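Researcher: First entry.
Model:
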Amino acid sequence: MKSIINTSSFLFMLISHPCIAGDVPNPEGWRLPTRSETSDEWRNKDSNRYLHVSADLNGDGVTDYARLLINEKPSFKLTLFIFLSQQDGTFKTYRFSEKDDASYLENIGIERVAPGRYKTACGKGLECAKGEPKEVTLKYGGISYFKVESAMMYLYWDSSTKTFEKAWMRD
């Protein structure tokens, strides 16, 4: 009986804990794009339609989340949000690359990048900005933020600065 109670208690905690269940509320006024807004054929190649990612992005063993979200008031905005899990069950929210034109939704996506060492656009011989690395090491993996058949940026956690860094991978 005791193990059943413990199991039931654990299951209740598992379901109700936002870090585990993935029930991260969107910021007020923001929503995921609808299926009709993301009906482009290229999105069919990903079960999440290249709109959201779940992964441990900072190596703490707890799932973090990235989402492309829309806010239509007072005007259209498309923004990449990363929700980094905290030990107390809350999330620290990061915002990246806000677009104010609805047409961006037709060709912007995100997907998970595996841990590894990657050559940046600079390392591939494209123009380098001052201080831009030729390659990056993603210890915990990261998020690829891309425009279909065009530019791509990796966002990844830097343990030394305790924040997300960006690296252009394709111009």
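Researcher: Second entry.
Model:
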Amino acid sequence: MTEFGDLMRRLMAERGISLHRLAKDLNYNVGYLCKVRNGTKPAPRELAARVDEALSAGGELAALAPERPARRRGPGSGPAVVPNGSRRMAPEPEAACVLPSAALDGITDLWDDLMRRRAFLYHSGTAAMMALATPHPALPGPPDPAEAMAACADLTAAYRRLEGMLGPGAVYAQAAEHQRHLMAWLPCVRDRRARRQLGGVAADASLLLAWLCFDLDDHNRATLLYRQSFELARDLGDVNLAAFTVGRMSRTLSESGRHRDALRFAEAARHIADRAAIPQLRSWLAVTRAYVHACLGDERSCRQDLDAAAVLLRGGTRATLPYLAFYGPPYVHKWSGHALVALSERKAAPASAQGRAALDRALTGWSRAEVRESGEVLAAAARARLAQHEVDEAVHLTARACDVVTVTSSPRIMRYVTDLRQQLQPWRHTKAVIELDEHLPPGR
């Protein structure tokens, strides 16, 4: 614990002020304040002054606020298990660049602002913000840390594969406990190289857990976990991890219909990646950013990003980043289809046929192991058919997406199916839609 955190804890106890009450008084995230109190995050001077005032510290706390530390030069990506299945840790790649501290501070401010405003409305209605996570108690590490880290990386990869086949509910509890143990182990590691390796493994586990929350339509929880992954990336100086995490946050915002906020995060991710991140990651950032531009009706920027995504993917080698292993040509086709269909719904009618063709290419090349995500592609393809008034084919694809929901119990995919059924309402008396209603689960 830092001197600041120790005094903050003592003053809170003396004055009978809980962490939740202090967070409410300061309009700050309680999880963030908890980290400041426990010494795992430094207190910015502005926050220190406000805490000092709230606790009537007479300037003692404000005087203990540290200067913002300079960011270290670090590797371009986190550790990964060697693809051939070896249990050793993969060698760390060469350093890409120094993470731009000022830009990262701005992203942190964006994140904190979203969390303070409780920005998300759940698709099932307005929901109360989840109770923010308490700090993880430190746990002693295993006798062979390198072997344990490799095993943990393998376990995260296994949960990721299972989630793709069986859906988020099949692995959520195990993945959450796995991530909790990794975050509890991290403070106990003193060796710099080992801490870097474990930080990468913990960040990957946090990214997986955040994605599970996203698929379960718990966007508030996903936001907190992406924020946690971003802080790990920042501490590691990992350009790829930082850019990917900010890109995932943009994806979460666009899914919630907050497209202007999504664009701010998408542009921030591009700024982090610049030319330092690997081409495959920059391609993924470009194609997901294209969708945001499409949702905002910006056809020129959308098409520029789609072109850039295709060029970057062709020009780069296959990445070993565990959190980006999913990305390849079928995903470019999927997001190109998403973006072009969204564009056609807003302004560019010819984009509808182009979007349909891209989604058909995605379906043709889709891996059979990625069951849950195939539901998203099927639903998007149904939407493209509906835009061209091909009702029977849209119903057929919607029914296939519903079959994916049956296997994976994904609330997100079920939401896509329900939205499609609403769009099919004008044809509710047709044989195809009546049969679809019989196919859908009760209480959809």
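Model: Note on the second entry: The two ends are 50 Å apart (CA to CA).
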